[in-house]
Design brief:
This protein is of the alpha+beta class. Helices cover 17% and strands 26% of the residues. The protein has a two-stranded antiparallel ribbon with strand order 1-2.
């Protein structure tokens, strides 16, 4: 599927948004510091309509393919 101009991909470089959502991941024991847990959001007109949070160590529900299927 081609999302065209429907999709805006944003980064959370300093982790403030992840922290505000309660999605911090403490990876200091792995030498990686505090990071954001893997997740994706679908936002329509400023309203979150879907949040996909990965179980620890997995990748699936936050993939681009899943996000494209969830677009309105």
């Amino acid at each position: 599927a081609n999302a065209g101009k429907k999709v805006l991909m944003l980064a959370d470089g300093n982790g403030e948004y992840s922290s505000a959502l309660g999605l911090e991941l403490d990876a200091r024991s792995f030498g990686m510091g505090v990071r954001g847990q893997r997740f994706s959001l679908i936002v329509n007109d400023g309203v979150v309509t879907q949040i996909n949070i990965e179980p620890s160590g997995e990748f699936g529900v936050s993939s681009a393919e899943v996000a494209l299927e969830q677009l309105p």
